[in-house]
Amino acid sequence: MPEQNTTPALQNHTALDIINVHKAYTSRKKTIHALNGATLKLPCDQWAALLGPNGSGKSTLMRLICNLDVPDSGSIKRFDLPLNTHSQNARAMLGVVFQNPGLDPLLTVSENLITQAALFGLTGDQARNRIKSITQIMRIDDRLDQRVGTLSGGLIRRADLARAVLHKPQLLLLDEPTTGLDHESRTAFINLIHEIRTQAAQDGKPIAVLMSTHLMDEAAHADAVVLMHEGKVAAAGTPDQLINSVKGRTLTTETAARELFDSMNVPFTSNNSTLSVNIESIDIQMLEKLAASLAKQGADFAIARPTLADAYLSFTGQMLADNNHTEPPSHAHRARKNKP
Amino acid sequence: MNASANISTSAASWLLIRREIIRFIRQPSRIVGTLGTPLLLWAFLGSGFAGSFSSQQNSYAGYLLPGMVTMTVLFGSIFASISLIEDRREGFLQSILVSPLPTWALVASKTLGTSAIVWIQSIILLPAAYLLGKNPDALGLVQAGIVIACICVGITGLGLALAWLVNSSQGFHGVMNLILMPMWLLSGAFFPLSGASSWLRLVMLANPLTWSSELLRVSINPDAVYALPGSPVLGWVACLGFALFGMILASATLGKTKSTRKSSS
């Protein structure tokens, strides 16, 4: 399996330097190795996406970077500072969007943002001006007096993103930030990340973004994609680099053909509207038979360029799985005992 | 403007306290639940046991008053502790934990904000002492206010620590029934220490709420005699010690375990 442990370096400075991190959890005599030597480097102006299915270690890595949990071994540095540096400066460099929005549903958007601003040292006119400008960028400036609990999921996510970047962090962590959103809202959210990065670059203070996702169409927006598999970085590179590393072309068709693929034992990847087969993975007779069967069913199909899902399959030997459907926010939670 | 290293802990803490107050005002069911249950119990038990409890100095309703104030504190603190579990589930708490605000300031804000709300709810019951003919003087009312504040901080700190460890509102209700309710029942709220069996008397003396309730009783009833071993100074030590214990326990628990939820991947 080809392995590139670092994302393409765009600058000398690193926002994140993660070296050989291990983390295991034990419950009821069962040990789960959430991270098995994850290594990755994120330059300070880059947007990287951690792409992998549930259980691949993305959220655990995010928790460790946030210092909400501690690694069993290995090293994590943010802007060359070890995580046990509990200085206010080190924490103030970080903005985080968690899977569950960090807003109080009983408070208005404005009340939430004022509280959050104070946590990062912004008060008075400074806070008000910043809230005004960031809510304009997020297009929620007309919702400031509305209680968060009464907003739609998409608006809550936008308000949560405003909360996370209110203090102009230099590193933005997004842990599956579009969970529960429909396609349109997800696209709008991703566009906002582009806007935030553009604004930060114009201000001369670039922002590094690390986003975990199991959706390949989201990951494709990033400068670099890090494929997470069984707690390790299976491969990393630009979306094009990863896709180009997959040999051959892909047959893409509609999801109605799933039963046909299953009956013919054809390995495929899927998202919410399409199924894909790497035609290198099947012999020519099988391809002819498949095409004939699809035509007989009246299903549309096309031979196209591989996707990140194909790259994931190629590097890990496992499918990224049915992954473009939206899921409700998980409320399951369980405490872990840490030694932070 | 950029990430500021010089956060004002007091300003941030005040906004977190303000948040607790706003949340309370916007949840009328909390007000009804916190005040309604003790008032109903007081009315039913005070009337029901009126003929069974004989004392020339005190009616049973009068005897129950300090216990009902303590119960109001207990219920208010329980609601607030459950809100900590909600904060954790909704992600609000995580956003604070990754901010530059020190953990002790978070704990202090939560404890003080909750205590302030519960304190106001509890002292609303004090004028009932005049209706029952106790007529506490100004010093007695001030003492009662301080005792109630100590109970608020102590129980809230204990409740927050338990809520943090238990991690689910269902589990917290179990712990509440196992720890907090017995603490209240054995505080002398229903029956005096002098009438209890010897083993139960020891348990009651080990309960900090017994000492607080007794101080509250003598504060709002000028005719009452302090009925616990030692002088009232010992009662004050236990009362203030309980408040300090609550704060330290909450700080230690929340500071030690910053983990808030299991990751899904």
How would you explain this protein's 3D organization?
The complex is a heterodimer of chains A (340) and B (265). Chain A has 340 residues and is an alpha/beta fold. Chain A folds into two domains: 14-238, P-loop containing nucleotide triphosphate hydrolases (Rossmann fold); 247-305, Alpha-Beta Plaits (2-Layer Sandwich), CATH 3.30.70. Chain A contains eleven helices and 14 strands. Chain A has helices spanning 58-65, 88-92, 109-119, 124-137, 153-165, 183-202, 216-219, 239-244, 258-263, 284-297, 308-316; strands spanning 14-27, 30-43, 47-51, 73-78, 81-82, 94-97, 171-175, 208-213, 224-229, 232-237, 250-254, 269-270, 274-278, 301-304. In chain A, strand 4 and strand 5 form a beta hairpin. Mean pLDDT of chain A is 84; it is low at 1-11 and 322-340. In chain B, helix 7 packs parallel to helix 11 (232-256), helix 8 packs across helix 9 (198-206) and helix 10 crosses helix 11. With 265 residues, chain B is an all-alpha fold. Chain B has one domain. Chain B starts with 8 loop residues before the first helix and ends in a 9-residue tail after the last helix. The chains are: A alpha/beta (340), B mainly alpha (265).
Question: How far from one another are the termini of chain A?
Answer: 35 Å
Strand order of the largest sheet of chain A: 6-7-8-3-9-10
Shape of chain A: globular
Spans of at least 5 consecutive residues with low confidence of chain B: 258-265
**CATH class (first level) name of the largest domain in chain A:** Alpha Beta
Mind summarizing the main beta sheet of chain A? 6 strands, mixed
Number of structural units classed as domains of chain A: 2
**Can you write the helix and strand succession of chain B as a string?**
HHHHHHHHHHH
Return the average pLDDT of chain A rounded to an integer.
Answer: 84
What is the subunit organization of this protein? Answer: heterodimer
User: What is the helix fraction of residues of chain A, given as a range?
Assistant: 25-40%
